Amino acid sequence: MIEVRDLHKAFGPVKAVEGVSFSARDGEITGLLGPNGAGKTTTLRMLYTLMTPDRGEVLVDGINASTDALAVRRQLGVLPDARGLYKRLTARENIDYFGRLHGLPEDVLASRREALIQALEMGDIGDRRTEGFSQGQRVKTAIARALVHDPRNVILDEPTNGLDVMATRALRQFMQKLKAEGRCVLFSSHIMQEVAALCDRIVVIAHGRVVADESPDALRKQTGEANLEDAFVKIIGSEEGLAA
Amino acid sequence: MNTSVRQKPYRSRAFLTVFFKEVRENLRDRRTLISAFLTGPLLGPILFVMLLNVSLNRELDKADKPLSVPIIGAQYAPNLIDALKAGDIVPAPPLADPEKAVRRQDADVVLRIAPNYGAAWRQGQPVQVEMFYDSSQRDASTAVERVSQLVESYARQQGAMRLVARGLSPTTAWPLVVARRDQSTPQSRAVLLFAMLPYFFIITIFMGGMYLAIDLTAGERERQSLEPLFANPVPRWKIFLGKLAAICVFSSISLLITLVAFALVGQFIPAEKIGMELDLGVHFAAYVLLIMLPVLLLLAALQSLVAAFAKSYREAQTYLSLLMLVPAIPSLLLAVLPIKSAPWMYAVPVLGQNLSIIQLLRGNGIEPMQLGLCLAGSLLAAVIAVLITMQLYRSERLAISA
Question: Most exposed: A38, A106, A211, B198, by fewest CB within 10 Å?
Fold first, then answer.
């Protein structure tokens, strides 16, 4: 369960986030939808405590990020916008590194790692160094290391960025699986179909503000548009930055 | 799932995890390995031997500049003084304690003429001229040589005149003539070379840790792996300390390699030809290692600091190349102006190491106080640099690339 209340963040004169509030519930997939530069990544960065909000608060499973950032990070599995791997380490070693940073005992780590490698169908690349991995293989490895500690909450920043159709499909299925396991899945995207196909709840962000927080059906109803893309354009009030 | 259940916090072993991962990852990087374990540590010894041999094969100096020599009892031997003056020696006022003055490097050489010089001379008896000097003071030996040659040639000349006065040929008194073929290097060059020796050690430490320092901050950010790393439930200072330890391990191995190389190469340096005994053995290496430990930490922290400031790998490389010149300053200063060391200088990082190593090379040994100052001063600087870098690691901007 992730709760965000009235987040503000400015970089000098640029107000990146101006009052974002929403909550993402367990057993649901929540989509953070918005055009490029709307403040999605900055919002997520405040969620996983990389940045401190100027105002507002973040609660993850009831833990306040400003008072116990480490505990919040323990509750989260994060695939950030930046998802660089260690190219001189194998995929398994990359995963192990993060598992050990979480302090997982070696036996727990090994079983979690192998479960993820199986779930993400990366058995063939597990012992290869990540240098030269395809985009899809890289994302898989990054997701595996993000989830190695079995987090209750999963944050994915534009997870399907740069993936081909097959990899995207596989990733969507994986997210459904996370949801079925009762986790709270929060992901950001600027891609309509993805959000429409996956989300139980859509939080639309534009210009650093939440402009809608509904289920996909409610969103369609509210705008009177049958097509979610048209609904989206109507909500954010322009076609700027829309990619399908 | 129950939302109120907290993830169980495991026992933290972040420091070791980061440390071992960085060491393992960098052991797989050929460029880092070559720089840390090959070019870095071996460049110094090779360069050193080459320079030394080149300069050994060169003759120089004897630029007869006026030399000021304190003379005690100058009034007893006006003729000798005139002869010295003719040899461009400028008599200086006498000193109360010639031994001490020479040992403290207040004077390179001091002459003492006995009060009975005149009387003995007139009776044709041998008279004694005492010369005080310290042969271990490398920059004094040219002066010592000059003064002793002048005094001896004055003596020979006077002896020849006495023989002539008695109707004998002066050559009867010299059945043998030594033709001196001086192979010694100019002392000034030797000074320069030995003063550079500490810098070779520092360069080695620097090169040993440089690629790691860049890779672990600027590099990691550029490859976009710093942000996911910081999303782990580990305080950033622990991550930094793990990285710092990895840098230190690499640079200390570099230093060890270079010390071993110097010890081997030291066998081939014909140090005796320049009037010095060069001991680069185990004793020397152990001392150098000890006094370099705080510098190792200091440099690792400074490298991380600079690399963390830089926006990219390349930028970090540029900054660090400039930073590499900074520790050269004390070595160059000592080489150009052989200053007399004051105790406070030992507390200055790098300068203290320089002076201590020169002391070791001279065979003087390091006094406990000098050693203490040297270690404490550098350690303090290192701790400050570590704390500043730790503070920098807390910055929000650090993790974010572009």
Answer: A106
